[in-house]
Specification:
heterodimer; A: 299 residues; alpha/beta; Rossmann fold; five-stranded parallel β-sheet; 8 helices; 16 strands; 29% strand; B: 247 residues; seven-stranded parallel β-sheet; three-stranded antiparallel β-sheet; 6 helices; 32% strand
């Protein structure tokens, strides 16, 4: 068994955890709590898979079982993605191993007798280098990171376990937010000024083949854009190829939702707006003038 | 149901000033209530009221108890001496010691802080309660008063999950706080007694020895700015995006 374990309850956790660990996948063991497809997806990128078939139960139901299994192996480092289920699993594991649980981890490595981790703090405004004893448990942010593929898929060993009495009683389709999968998003903030001004932005979005997004106040307080299009820490987390931020100041809560955007263009009349520190391109100006000018330039 | 609601257990990241060398200064080191805390106490209050139970507010550090009293708490327990750090396990241990002082709880409700995603999981394990994070709504199961139903978004679906009490639920705010208490309610709340203890009196365990060795500012994107005449700037921006294969 490996010295490093990852805990997986969703396929999005595999790449993120392995990316943070920075070691060959063959040297990593995985505990998968989920369905067969998640176990098979994980097996392509690690050296060993223990699999708890979650059946219809949410991952949270298996926290005690996961803690018992990992506790028996007692690896020095355990990493998991901060999905809802992952957080419950990792919390139970950390308590069983009597270890710290450090969140928002970017990287983690063995260092001498202990471990060293880089943690994103203050909404991404600072990176802390942490030293900690082992064993250590870390949570990483789920991300659309394709995990490297090993030469040979790992064996999958089913594990018999008993869940806690947590059951999924109903599943309904959610309100689809087209910004989630869009390759291009044009977002508006308070600087839009009025609901009526949105029509010009929609014309720009149409010209770009983009979906409309917004900051939280625009959806929540002002109601100019539907709530499922709100991008931010408690809204949609998106990773478009192009993100255009119009009249958005760039508060950390909003930037959290676009931290995986490939290219960010900012338009703001305030040259000191924090959004320009998170953008690749920018125009300092009134968006009500810039938007028609951009539409003209795109034609 | 006896409900415990945790509030004011983290600092506001916006209150921190980050120097160019990465060092951090807290302009306001106090622990603050977040929109998630507000959503949590609304959910907790409705759970308690719907079942004829009690609502106890629990906080750590130097949390202002009036915040919870003015939002419907019957009692408030405060454990002082806690400063949030990089280890969510340490924060959870402090909260666990405070929750235990509140007495027996059927449901523990807390705000689901994105900056500290590990706290809820560790706290539930320390309290020997199952944990349900990222919750939008929590109600009592109409078919079984000893069970709660939580509703939450999970990707493209909305799932309803049932769990027996005792259980810990972390509520994520869907919006800013609606209808905060008025001045009169807040002033009345300040007169109510708080049950206080220190971390050591509450039996919080020693820290896990996670130390900050260094801090730095992450690399920022250097925005290429186009200024001056708006029409010209817009043309130059579009040309740059095309040249860089973004468009």
């Amino acid at each position: 068994m490996s010295e490093i374990w990852i805990i997986v309850d969703d396929q999005c956790g595999v790449g993120a955890a392995l990316d943070a660990l920075g070691v060959p996948g063959e040297t990593v063991s995985a505990l998968v709590v989920g369905d067969r497809s998640t176990a098979e997806h994980t097996s392509r990128s690690v050296g060993d898979v223990r699999w708890i078939d979650a059946g219809g139960s949410p991952a949270e139901a298996w926290a005690n079982a996961a803690a018992a299994l990992v506790g028996a192996a007692a690896p020095p480092i355990v990493a998991g993605a901060a999905t809802p289920g992952g957080r419950a699993l990792m919390g139970a594991i950390a308590v069983r191993l009597n270890t710290p649980l450090v969140s928002n981890v970017l990287t983690v490595r063995r260092q001498g007798d202990g471990a060293e981790a880089e943690q994103s703090d203050l909404g991404g405004r600072v990176i802390l280098t942490l030293s900690m004893p082992v064993p250590a448990c870390v949570l990483v942010t789920p991300a659309d990171v394709d995990p490297p593929v090993c030469d040979v898929p790992a064996a999958i060993t089913p594990v018999e376990a008993v869940p806690d009495a947590i059951v999924r009683v109903k599943v309904e389709p959610g309100v689809m937010s087209r910004v989630t999968e869009a390759e291009r998003v044009v977002s508006v903030g308070r600087g839009l000024g009025s609901r009526e001004a949105l029509s010009a932005v929609e014309a720009l979005a149409a010209e770009l083949g983009a979906e409309i997004g917004c900051s939280m106040p625009v959806a929540d307080e002002l109601g100019w854009v539907a709530r499922e299009r709100y991008v931010g820490v408690s809204g949609q987390h998106i990773s478009p190829k192009l993100y255009v931020a119009l009249g958005i100041s760039g508060m950390p809560q909003h930037l959290f939702g676009i931290r995986n955007a490939q290219t960010v263009v900012a338009v703001n009349s305030d040259p000191r707006a924090p959004i320009f520190n998170a953008a690749d391109y920018g125009i300092v100006g009134d968006l009500h003038e810039v938007v028609p000018a951009l539409i003209e330039a795109l034609k | 149901m006896n409900v415990v609601c945790i509030f004011k257990w983290a600092r506001n990241p916006d209150d921190a000033w980050v120097e160019p060398d990465g060092s951090i200064t807290w302009r306001r080191p106090k622990l603050v209530a977040t929109d998630d805390d507000a959503a949590a106490i609304v959910a907790a209050r409705e759970l308690a009221q719907s079942t004829g139970g009690t609502l106890v507010g629990v906080t750590v550090g130097d949390g202002d108890a009036a915040w919870a009293f003015s939002r419907g708490a019957d009692r408030v327990v405060s454990v002082s001496g806690f400063t949030p750090g990089p280890d969510d396990g340490e924060g959870a241990a402090a909260l666990a010691s405070a929750v235990r002082r509140a007495g027996e709880a059927d449901v523990v409700v807390m705000g689901d802080a994105v900056d500290h995603p590990g706290v809820a999981g560790v706290l539930g394990a320390l309290l020997s309660m199952p944990v349900l994070p990222s919750v939008d709504e929590v109600t009592v199961d109409p078919t079984d008063p000893r069970r709660v139903l939580v509703r939450r978004r999970a990707g493209t679906i909305v799932e309803t999950i049932a769990a027996p009490s005792p259980v810990l639920v972390a509520v994520a705010a869907a919006s800013g706080e609606k209808d905060p208490p008025g001045v009169r309610e807040q002033l009345a709340a300040r007169k109510r007694p708080i049950e206080m203890a220190s971390l050591s009196e509450a039996g919080a365990p020693a820290a896990n020895n996670v130390a900050v060795a260094a801090s730095r500012v992450p690399p920022t994107r250097s925005a290429r700015l186009f200024e001056g005449d708006i029409a010209q700037a817009s043309r130059e921006l579009v040309a740059a995006l095309r040249a860089d294969h973004v468009l």
